[in-house]
Amino acid sequence: MSGTSSSQRTALSLAASGMPVLPLRRGKVPFGNCPACAGNACGGRPNMKTPGPCQCPGICHAWAAATTDPDVITSPAWAEAWQRAVCVGYYPGGAGLTVVDLDDADALTWARTALPATRTVSTTRGEHWIYRGTMASRNAVRPGVDIKSTMAYARYLGPGTGTMADLPDAVRALAVKEPSPVRPAAHAAVAPAGFGGGECPHRTPAYLARGIAMAEQRITEASSAVHATVYGTFLAVLSRHGRCGCLTDTHVIRLFTAAQAKGETARHCADAWNNARTTLGL
Questions:
Q1: Neighbouring-strand partners of residue 224
Q2: What is the DSSP string of 37-103?
Q3: Is the dihedral of CA 102, 13, 85, 64 positive or negative?
Q4: Which of 187, 210, 216, 221 is the most buried (most CB within 10 A)?
Q5: Taking the CB of residue 75, how many other CB atoms lie within 10 A of it?
Q6: Higher pLDDT, 112 or 222
Q7: Distance CA 180, CA 183 (A)
Q8: Would you call 245 helix, strand, or coil by DSSP?
Q9: DSSP 4
Q10: 241 near 208, Cβ under 8 Å?
Q11: 273: enclosing H helix or E strand
Q12: Higher-pLDDT residue of 191, 39
């Protein structure tokens, strides 16, 4: 196949085996979004919260550009990128895989005692441990350890050595982040000193119910930038009710349910809630 780069040839070989691939540029990062999506002007691919290919004709939306289609890989839109590519990336989740990226000697020492043996690939500073099965991706699950599976990409560094094992619960557990507990409402909630004093001013059931209903509506009606809308809504609710004991688990579940109906994961909801609490110093 004359005229193709070595990266493109590697990509075609991987794609033929069922591995979704994409070119990575200098810095070992994806190419920028297409002109229509530059700067995330599109608000994010409509189904960016779920695994699947990007619908843009060029190399767009990072991991979502990964493909097994040889016609796309050899298309004019991708040709220049392959000439500039420094390596081949792939989408582990799209191939039914999870990569545990161990970035230093301490992480490797931990993995050798905590995780079952599987196929390994050497990296510049450590190893990729590859398991059969998918899960949510998450960075910095412990020092020097990232997880790359759904909605993430990894560098292809060779076939590796060893027999690939099924994804163990020990790896799945690494990505679980418990949300901070919500302070339950008390029957005589009192605002903290310096926050107005006296009995909680939001104890009127109708006031709180209306606020939660409006927050649910704002999330439900979001047509783009859903994650930002969810965070902004959580921030608004907590700024109004987060210091006085009004919010209960039931209220928070209602907000999380509305967000998940728009495609947010439980993890994204928990992260957005905790980030909002941190921003407000709660």
A1: none
A2: GGGGTT-S-TTTTSS----SSSS-SGGGG-B--HHHHTSHHHHHHHHH-SEEEE-TGGGTEEEEEE-
A3: negative
A4: 216
A5: 14
A6: 112
A7: 9
A8: coil
A9: -
A10: yes
A11: helix 266-280
A12: 39
* Cα 70 to the center of its chain, rounded Å: 27
56-70, 143-157, 267-281: least confidently modelled range: 267-281
Alpha helices by DSSP H, listed for 136-242, are 169-172, 205-220, 226-241
Cα within 13 Å of Cα(130), Cβ side: 25
The token duo for 11 is 């990509």
Beta bridge partners of 130: 99, 119
Per-residue pLDDT at 277 = 81
* Residue 94 burial (CB count, 10 A): 24
**What is the amino acid identity at position 35?**
P
- Of the chain, the end-to-end C-alpha distance in Å amounts to 60
Pairing of strands 165-166, 127-132: parallel
**Which helix (H) or strand (E) is 257 found in, with range?**
helix 249-261
In this predicted structure, what is the pLDDT of residue 192? 34
Name the residue among 226, 92, 87, 68 with its Cα closest to residue 146. Answer: 92
0.70 surpassed by pTM: no
pLDDT in tens, 115-157: 999 999 999 999 999 999 998 888 888 899 999 998 899 999 9
CA distance 231 to 250: 18
Give the integer Cα–Cα distance in Å for 105 and 128.
12
